[in-house]
Amino acid sequence: MAIPDFQTLMLPVLQELTEGPVRASELIGRMAAAFRLTDEERARLLPSGRQAVINNRVHWALT
Fold first, then answer.
1. Does pTM surpass 0.85?
2. Cα–Cα distance for residue pair 56/41, rounded to 1 Å
């Protein structure tokens, strides 16, 4: 499966937050698992090489 864009992540992220506070790092893991991302997809970096794509998109969904 492709890494979801941040718009696709918005609803699942909000649903996770209804159960109480969650650390961003834990939320990233939950979203990666929910969307069945492979290890390669989880490790894929932005073009800058500084951040994983899934981390970036979950953070944008939180914003």
1. yes
2. 13
